[in-house]
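Q&A log
Question type: sequence-to-structure
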Amino acid sequence: MADYTFYTNPMSRGQIARWALHEAGADYEQVLVDWQDKGGLSAVNPMGKVPALVHHRGGHDHVVTEAAAICHYLAEMSAPGLLPRDGEKADYFRWLFFAAGPVEQAVTDRSMGWEVPADRTGMIGYGTYDRMVDTLESLLKDRAYVCGDRFTMADVYVGSQVGWGLAFGTLPKRDAFAAYDARLDEREGRKAARAIDDALIAEAQGAEGSGG
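Response status: OK
Response body:
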């Protein structure tokens, strides 16, 4: 049995977790989840959502859900070199949770067409979409990675948010975002994970097109 069982669908946030698995050099087997037939996923994650990761360790199965949590867990368990050093912890955790909170919520709300009333911005974690974008840009203007000059696991999650934002137009095409995304595209872990998911998507689309 592999160390990890990875529940995913290639057209989902599972892409983030797969990238993290490859950066960590983790031994995993995948379980592809169909949107209509969740199979055994619900027993692992009652939310019925991917990604979900099961770590088979010490005679027990340890379940981790939520993409940001999976990223950090994999660094803790399988890739300590991708954890923050003492002087990097503030940036690492600040921006990991900023991407999982304000960035995710602001982008989702905007995609849904939900606008925060001007007199209610103090009630919502991201304030305004524009404020979130400017704050994220401030991180990436003068540094190569979240923690400075060194890639850490936080870059998998923050980088995924930036990459998807640029690809799908949910973030503006600012120079700092494009340069950061280009740096991350050179990562072998990202290339390997993306190749797997791209092949799975192509295979699924081919099956749909043939009526299979």
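Response note: The chain has a mean pLDDT of 96.
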